[in-house]
Amino acid sequence: MSAPAKPARRLDAETAADIAHNPFKADFPLLESNPDLAFLDSAATAQRPACVLDAQRRFYEAKNANALRGLYRLSVDATEAIEAARSRVARFIGAAHARDIVFCRNTSEALNLVAASFGGLVLKPGDEVCLTIMEHHSNLVPWQQACRRAGATLVFLYPDENGVVTQAEMDAKIGPKTKIVAAAQVSNVLGIENPVREMGERVHAHGGYLVVDGAQSAPHLPIDVEAIGCDFFAFSAHKAFGPFGIGVLWGRDELLDAMPPFLTGGEMIEYVTEQDATWAPVPEKFEAGTQDAAGIVATAAALDYLDGIGLDVVHAREQALVAYLMARLAELPYVRVLGHPSPAHHHGVVSFVVDGIHPHDVASLLDLENVAIRAGNHCAQPLITWLGEESTCRASLALYNDQSDIDRLIAALKTTWTTFNPESQK
Ligand SMILES: Cc1ncc(COP(=O)(O)O)c(C=O)c1O
């Protein structure tokens, strides 16, 4: 069995913000073994540090058994490992009770659970569900379905030209008919932080509920579900240095208790007869079937890694990276950045377009230079349409990036431009 991973270093924010240096890259085996790769797609999925990979392997080497099902030691160990991880996740997001943490596959499944189970419980004909136009399809399509089933209506909050959802817009759209507001805390296209706390205050004043999609905030910002004042919060481990296949849903105790199950089958029941079944208490009621115990344990290791560095330190480094990226992009007259002009309003994400060159072509040519970015609609088609685009390029950053990654992106963008515009070289 391998030795336990070393705890992450804790640097001060000022040292971490020195992006000419990279004290984090060595933690990430994939980046270490690909020194020429500029990986700028962390909003899609982050790279994993060795301590997370080790935790997953160690589970299989030392604790592997089906949790909950066995009365023998190994199975009890697996069950205890899951419950320890549940407490770890609760601590990471400021949740008071570990039992209110439900493990699922990803943010998409968590939001589907809320829309189907909670939406089905509370939505009535004539109710409104209010979303921002910048929602990822995972926080849009489930609500379209829930509204269709209930006879409720979807209403959208539109941002101003900088991507900001204003107080006036919230006042106009969140009212007595609003039963649910569901919003991304951070947009995966614009990188902007939405005023979710203010949305919660408004919808609560009308007796409604707030669902927060934390897929792009949990890796970048300190999360406190009580301070946000939300009723549900969802995020994916794989965007926060954890494994694929683990999503987290937190919900308020009394709401989770009242909700019907989403998926049914093994482990989520209390008693089953030929014709009927009763449900296990929360959280098992929402965790049908065999859990990915190794993934859950590795998720806790990822949160240890993040907290070990400190979200304030992560934030300081990401802000320095975004500021440098936006300043360098501004040097290219043929590149237009979308969203807020200030780097302070981009949490690790900068979307842009290159005049006259399709984003897919940009991304493919950058790939030839070993620069990995995302191009497309980023699963936020209504936002891209509202922005008047068909598709955009997106560079997204994490603490393991440095100045040289951005320099490589800029150099590759110049090459792309001259490839498409050979006359510009004359
Ligand atoms: C804001 C946002 N919400 C939800 C999701 C869906 O996450 P997952 O694919 O892990 O379910 C993403 C993924 O990119 C996202 O950026």
UniProtKB/TrEMBL annotation:
Its cofactor is pyridoxal 5'-phosphate. PROSITE patterns: AA_TRANSFER_CLASS_5 (PS00595). Its EC number is 2.8.1.7. The keyword Iron-sulfur does not apply. Residues 39-409 form the Aminotransferase class V domain. Belongs to the class-V pyridoxal-phosphate-dependent aminotransferase family. Csd subfamily. This is Cysteine desulfurase. The lineage of its organism: Bacteria, Bacillati, Actinomycetota, Coriobacteriia, Eggerthellales.
